[in-house]
Amino acid sequence: MRVLASIPHQRLFSSCLWIFLACLIAYANIYGNAFLWDDLDFIVRNYEIRSLSPLGKFFHSASTIPQRPVMNLSFAVDYRLWGLNPAGYHLTQVLLHALNSLFVFLLLYRLFSSRGAALIAGLLFALHPVHSEAVTAFLGRSELLMTFFCLLSVGAFWFSLQHSGVRGWLTYLGSLVAFVLACLSKETGIVVPILCLLIFLLSPSFQGWRKSWKSVLLRFSPFVALAVFYLFYRSSVVHSIPRSWWGGSPVYNFMMMFTVVWDYASLLFSPLHLSPWYITSVPKSLWEWKVILGIIISIGGVLLIVFLRQKASILSLSIGWILFALLPVSNLIPIPGSMMAERWLYLPSVGFCWAGGWLLAKLLERLKEAKFLRSLVIIGLCGLTMLFLIRIWTWNVIWRSGERLFGTMLSENNENTLAHDRLGDLHLEHNRFQDATREYATTLFYQPKAPRAYEGLGSVFWAWNLKDEALTLFRQAVVLAPDFTQAHYSLGLALAETEDTAGAIRELQMVWVKEPLNPAPNEALGSLLLRSGRCGEALGYLEQALRFKPRDHELHFKVANALIGLGRWSEAEAALKEVLSLNPNFWGAYRDLAVVYTKEGRPEEAEKMRQIYEGKRNGY
Questions:
Q1: Among 24, 110, 285, 365, which residue's beta carbon has the most beta carbons within 10 A?
Q2: Per the omega criterion (within 30 degrees of 0), is the bond before 54 cis?
Q3: Which of 432, 405, 437 lies closest to 418, judged by CA?
């Protein structure tokens, strides 16, 4: 607590309490929101988070889920605590946001000793509507964790420069560890060394340090070494996603970057029109107004960093923080799948909130004697707070169900093929086949090579017993997206139904390579191999599926049949008894127990099982 000794404890506690309560109030209505969209892949269908061991699986996996070890480990902890109850995961999101808001307050205070500016900045960060997606959608977990460790690393770095000896070096080591954890939460955490450098160059606390370049190199070389090692890890170990230039050219992509900078600046200053999915047109000319304004913001920001360095270093630092934290998400390097997202503003907005807090605090200080004007400003700030709260509450509700979320996307742009695709999946899940067909067909109208739509239509046709047409659609989906595991899975099940066992096994094994823990391909493969008489191979897949479906009596029955095929009678007996403990009316288990007892030389027990079997089968 010596770091905060200059703030009276009562004021420190009250400031932190206000910020914490603001976060709780702003997101009080998200606990009824379900798992949506990417949440299904990240959590519901992500079987790697069902256990905390081995830890190595969080660092390297064949899965197409983003390899962000800290994020996935946090989901595993949530699963251990809450199972698949989304309310618990939402609580974690809100608590992380509250911690980040407190860090924004504490770090700004320690850097510039302005409690008023720090408190306003913390509240602004807690209540800025642009953060709603990061807090409400579980995909935002990576942003929350990455920002938490970024702020922790920067704060520990600042503290290490303030103290010499063991304490200073221990906190410096903590800064390096937090940097690594930020990168392992999300790739954009790699900007931490730049943010630390900004603190070093622009904070008035380190004028003496800046005179010694040997000390500078000593402090920053480990950050650079860790950044290089992390980039090597990302490129050599982690599943990489193909990238292509927006507009098909680096020139158009470069112009796209400035368009995105303008759009992000607009969201920071006017966060009332939010969207779950942004579709930005690729500019065709350097003279388009968004490109020009983006260039002005970028160049003007750099000039302000230099100009304000001596006059208002806090503004200089804040602007620098915004610009450099925006770099990884500005499409300087094209981001696959989407040009921009509100959650990507979470870290850059720290600088915006610092600048806003400082400017508002200065304004209130200037109006200290003009009580009427000061009262008007305070009333205006209270009104803005209520406006932000209402915007957050109304936007949180959009994420309550898939129908609302994707319906909102389509209300903004009816040509949004992603929304049509996902709405089709929802209709298919509820057996609304006509509605699903309409959505998938609309997707293919706007995007003729959409693999998800082909797979979805194939599932509809299969339900309508149009098997040949369904097989054609499944195969088309696989051709368009060879890594699309759902298409391989659907094709494998369809081939199994048409007695093409070899083809079915081939398709399901392609799914298993990507998702070795998923019980669905494990059970399907085990069942096919068992049907083919390959009991030894079948047993391995079935036992793997059983890890995640221990209460499935039919799965236990299949395991028992594989054990019978291998002549492992005592194990088969135990498996069949487990079947009957789960479902005493499953008469097939009595029949097979009779076989097992006969093989074990227990004729009386075998006869008893046969009699029970006949009775169960005949319904008496």
A1: 110
A2: yes
A3: 405
Rounded to whole angstroms, how far apart are CA atoms 104 and 118?
7
Q: Lowest-confidence range among 3-12, 340-349, 387-396, 489-498?
A: 3-12
> Roughly what angle, to the nearest 10 degrees, separates helices 417-429 and 402-412?
150
DSSP symbols for 183-197: HHH-GGGGGHHHHHH
Q: By mean pLDDT, which of 33-37, 312-316, 427-431 is the weakest?
A: 312-316
Q: Cβ(341)–Cβ(133) under 8 Å?
A: yes
Lowest mean pLDDT among 61-75, 163-177, 291-305, 365-379: 61-75
| Cα 89 from Cα 82, distance rounded (Å) | 7
Torsion of CA 402, 405, 406, 407, to 10 degrees: 110
What confidence score (pLDDT) does residue 67 get? 74
Q: How far apart are CA 516 and CA 454, in angstroms?
A: 25
Task: Write the single-letter amino acid at 86.
Answer: P
* Contact by Cβ (8 Å): 460, 433: yes
Q: Rounded to an integer, what is the distance from CA 118 to the centroid of its chain?
A: 29
Tell me if 34 sits within 8 A of 89, measured CB to CB.
Answer: no
For residue 279, pLDDT beyond 50? yes
Nearest alpha carbon to residue 456 among 425, 484, 413, 498: 425
Residue with tokens 């650079």: 224
For residue 24, the model assigns a pLDDT of 95
Burial degree of 25 (CB within 10 A; 0-12, 13-18, 19+): middle
* Residue listed under structure tokens 């040997």: 214
Q: Hey, what domains does the chain have and what are their CATH numbers? A: 10-398 (no CATH), 414-477 (1.25.40.10)
Residue with tokens 């600042």, as numbered in its chain = 158
Task: Please say whether the beta carbons of 455 and 474 come within 8 A.
Answer: yes
pLDDT of residue 3: 46
% of the chain at pLDDT higher than 70: 94
Cα–Cα distance, 421 to 529 (Å, whole number): 33
The span from the first CA to the last CA of the chain, in angstroms, equals: 75
